[in-house]
Amino acid sequence: MTARNIDGKAFAAGLRARVAAGAAEVTAQAGRKPGLAVVLVGEDPASAVYVRSKGKATVAAGMESFEHRLPADTTQETLEALVDQLNADPAVDGILVQLPLPKHLDESAIITRIDPDKDVDGFHPVNAGRLATGLEGFVPCTPLGCLMLLRDVHGDLTGLDVVVIGRSNIVGKPMAQLLIGDSCTVTVAHSRTRDLPEVVKRADIVVAAVGRAAMVKPEWIKPGATLVDVGINRTEGGLVGDVDPACAEVAGAMTPVPGGVGPMTIAVLLRNTLVSAARRQGVTLSQAI
Ligand SMILES: Nc1nc2c(c(=O)[nH]1)N[C@@H](CN(C=O)c1ccc(C(=O)N[C@@H](CCC(=O)O)C(=O)O)cc1)CN2
User: Fold this and answer.
1) Does the keyword Hydrolase apply (predicted)?
2) Which label site among 98, 151, 154, 162 has the fewest CB atoms less than 10 Å from its CB?
């Protein structure tokens, strides 16, 4: 068997086109474009690339991009003051602080400082609580992108066994919450899980978000299972996911790296920004997004 390729890049392009149509509606009805503010602290090369891509994609979707680049030695007070300023700015519908932040900064305090109703990353504890309790809020972009791909592959996810490998606040935990919301039976595995290969072998769907190159092996996979690879590991041989590419011989469907989950992260960010702008301006979008 060779697994079907789940083309996240193509799906993301479709989502971005729907966001652009929605952004035009908001602009026409509210008299201003939806606005996204992105804050980058320091010179981490990968973060700089992601921030540039976000700015370009925001403008291409017909939205306003406000980029704030701060030096690596920025103080907590300066960064918090910028977040306060963006919270108060009526032209800003979404605020995103690119992670990771330099070590001397308190990441959690910064995230908590963002107005939850502008937190298009969905990282604020208020939005985590809303997701956990089934209330409307912002959902982190990467897990929501994974869910969109899974719904596209499977249609109804009810009753499927899913193993999420990784328990981070930005991927593993929200991913599990979303899948529970779609009536899956969810196991969250992590570095302390006993007999991980056996746990994974039970799964109809595996979401790998551990950050270890090619960790998930073909012999762990139930034949025909769907694999979603969130890993982006830079190795000497290039970009590698958390799933060994040889798993394609056993799986039924699989996201590639690159071109799978990664492009969904930015497309969902635009979607969340549009949703924020529509909510804040009282605009009802003509198509669900
Ligand atoms: N505030 C946030 N910080 C970070 C997030 C986030 O969602 N919010 N996620 C990641 C980085 N990230 C977006 O910020 C991101 C990662 C990967 C991709 C992507 O398109 N990847 C490509 C490969 C690109 C490459 O060569 O590096 C792919 O997988 O095809 C987009 C966005 C951490 N920080």
Assistant:
1) yes
2) 151
Residues paired with 38 in a beta bridge: 67, 96
Who lines ligand 1 at CB under 6 A?
A: 50, 96-99, 121, 141-142, 232, 239, 257-259, 262-263, 265-266
β-bridge pairing 233-235 and 4-5: unpaired
Is the omega angle on the peptide bond into residue 102 within 30 degrees of 0, that is, cis? no
Q: What is the CATH number of the domain that holds 225?
A: 3.40.50.720
Share the mean pLDDT of the chain: 97
Same domain, 239 and 286: no
Domains of the chain: total: 2
Q: Is the confidence at residue 103, as pLDDT, over 90?
A: yes
What residues contact residue 95 under an 8 Å CB cut-off, 6+ apart?
36, 37, 39, 83, 86, 87, 114, 115, 118, 119, 120
Answer yes or no: is 4 a known binding residue. no
ipTM of the complex: 0.97
Q: Over pLDDT 90: what percentage of the chain?
A: 99
